[in-house]
Design a protein that fits this description.
The protein is mainly alpha-helical and about 140 residues long. Helices cover about 55% and strands about 5% of the residues. It has a single domain, classed as Winged helix-like DNA-binding domain superfamily/Winged helix DNA-binding domain (Arc Repressor Mutant, subunit A), CATH 1.10.10.10. It has a two-stranded antiparallel sheet. It comes from Streptomyces chryseus.
């Protein structure tokens, strides 16, 4: 919610930001991803990425084109306006992250490092969705 509020003045939502920032990162890595590849990268549902991409195309931030080799695939690319908007949005989100992590010593703080390590451990715990009960968490040796 804080990210949505911070990005609101730029006319972006948190989900749109996630798509734009991920797309920018993939472009910097020399990739021009398909909607499916971007969905896999962001963890968002492919149908949702398609909806977001259409809205961002209408706003002039993203260009969607059919893949010549696979006509089912739609390739995404930031427009110049999209790159500019994404840069502004990244600055806003970085400021927000700095504010949120200030009590822990900032992004480079020792307490932040510990928090990230602990949260990563929680995220990495495999869940057995069929039982409805999470497996035992690994213990620290």
């Amino acid at each position: 919610m804080a990210v949505d509020r911070a990005l609101g003045p730029l006319g972006l939502t948190h989900a749109q930001y996630s798509l734009l920032a991920s797309l920018l990162g993939m472009e910097h890595a020399g990739r021009r991803p398909s909607q499916r590849e971007l969905a896999d990268h962001t963890g968002l549902e492919a149908l949702y990425v398609s909806k977001l991409a259409r809205a961002l195309e209408t706003a002039g931030l993203v260009e969607r084109t059919r893949d010549a080799a696979d006509t089912r695939a739609v390739r995404l690319e930031l427009t110049d306006r999209g790159r500019e908007a994404t840069g502004r949005a990244i600055t806003v989100v970085q400021r927000l992250v700095d504010q949120l992590l200030a009590p822990l010593g900032g992004l480079e703080g020792r307490r932040t490092e510990v928090l990230v390590r602990e949260l990563t451990a929680l995220i990495d715990v495999p869940l057995d969705a069929s039982s409805g009960v999470p497996p035992e968490a690994p213990t620290e040796e």
